[in-house]
Every structure is written in C-alpha cells, then in structure tokens.
Please model this.
Amino acid sequence: MLMKEYRICMPLTVDEYRIGQLYMISKHSCEQSGGGEGVEVVTNESDSHPQHGPGQLTEKRIYLSSKLPSWAKTFVPRFFYVTEKAWNFYPYTITGVSFLPKFSIRIETRFENNNGDNSNVFGDTPTPEEDVSFLDILIDPIPEKHYKESEDPSRWLSSKTGRGPLEKGWRDNHKPMMCSYKRVQCSFEVYGFQTRTEEFIHRNIRDILLVGHRQAVTWIDEWHGLSIEEVREYEQAMQEKTNNKVKSSQNTGEAAAPDLHCPEIPQRMEGRQKGVKESRKNIAWCDTGEDRERLVAYEKRSWKYMIVLRGYYLCISFQLNKQRIEKESMRN
Model:
C-alpha cells in the first residue's frame, strides 16, 4: 500500500469552498463526460454520522477505459468503470474507490483555514514528512490537455471578490487562505504490478487534485453568492445532464463490467451497515450474498488475465536480461 498526504492551498475560506466544491465537481463531471466515458451518479442522498453530524452520501460510476495505461487495457471491458462512494460530512469527507478485491483507494479529506501548516490535521498519527506533498495551484504543472487560460491562476481575476491574479509566494501572505488536506491510501495487491500501478494512480490523483482546485478558484464568479440550497439544485440538474450524456453515448453497447463495486466501508461507519459480512480477507464489503458470489467469480476471471499478462512480462524481462548479459560479455 502506498500512502501520501497532499496539501492544496486556495485563496478561499472553508465556508466559501463548501459551495465551490459542490459547484466544481458537478460542472467538471459534466465537462469530462461523453464518448462512453465520464461520471454517472447512482446515489445522492442525505446521511448522518454520530461524530461528524449530518452530511451527504454519493455513489458514482466512473467510466475511464481510455485513461488506463495500455498494458491494463488488454484485460478490461470496453466500457470499464470503477465505483466511487463518498461520505461528505463537511469539512471532513471520506471517499472510497474500488473495482477488484485486490485494488482500492481511500481518501480522507479535511479543510482548514490555514496555509497547510497543521502536521496532524486528522488527529491520529502524523504523516511522515517524506510522504507529505504540497501542491501549488499556481506553479505546479498540469497535463497540457487540461490547460485553459481562463483557469490559469496567474491570469485569473475575480470581478466579484477582487481576488487574483496569484503571484509567486502567494501562500505566505494571501488572505483569505485555506488548505485542503487529503490523505490518500492506494493499494493494488498483485505481485509484479503493485508498485507500478500504485505510482501510476498517485500521479493521476495529483493531476486531478491540481486541475480540480484550480477550477474551484477560477470559477469563483460563477458560484460565489450561491446558497447551499441553490448549489444543490444546480448539482441535481448537472447530475441529470451528465447521466444522460454517459448513457446516450453508450447506446451501441452496455458496460461489460458487472456491478461488483463494493468499496471498503469507512471504519467508523461499519456498525451502521446492516447485513454486511466480509467474505474473506482482502475482499471488499458487499451488500448481499449474491454480490459476493459474483465478485469472487469476477476475481477468478480477472486472475486468468493477470496470469497471462504476468507470463508476457516474464518473457520480456527474460529477453531483456539476456540481451544485457550478451552486451556485457561482448564488452569484456
């Protein structure tokens, strides 16, 4: 398992970002959906927690076949998706992503009005310094395909708030200032692919965080002044639009991946889930016995692909090693 803590500062307050976050996620999901891919919202309902109070539970299917590395595309369906479950008890949230028993992502987030100087924001074990990464929405690079001049903090100027553009060193003296603390745990327990896959996932998470937080800031004139009720209405309208975009682009075929996506239930919420059993070690939580049987069958079928892929990997490694030895012997 590879764990990192990301800290992303923004020229906003925590109260402002509650609106901006909902607006940004809804608009971004709609923009990124189409061509059989994107975000389909399955559930969006109120929830409550004895410690964190009232909040919102969402479940989404994220279709992302084209975003996978080439070596992974060989053994996934045409319309491949993972399921994301998020418990939003703002300013604390938990997000879980999974599609196989050996693969999972868990993200804890807490928002505070500071510049990222809280070394133990989650109140348990502080993250080692070498695993903490500060992401700067102004200077850190993003993939070229995601760059838009209108979303560049160095060119951004808010007509409603008078904020912007950001300048070098802005995190040291800008007011207001808040930080999004995200503790990301990624696990892919497949021998020979674990490190490579976990590093790939963290690189993509880093890009997603940078792009999303830049958008939340530079779109401020679109959402600033909205009430929580108004942004929830906007969220509902955009979810319907996004779901229609995803489904209409798949009308030539259905997603081949069965609905086996059962992310691990957050530890503090396990007692609230009725009838939930752990089928065996390292297998995600499922709601019914039928789900568990289908999940195990899907796992066995996936392992066949893994074995074949592993065979190719070993053959290529053997050939490369053989060539290296031959070159070294020729030098000698």
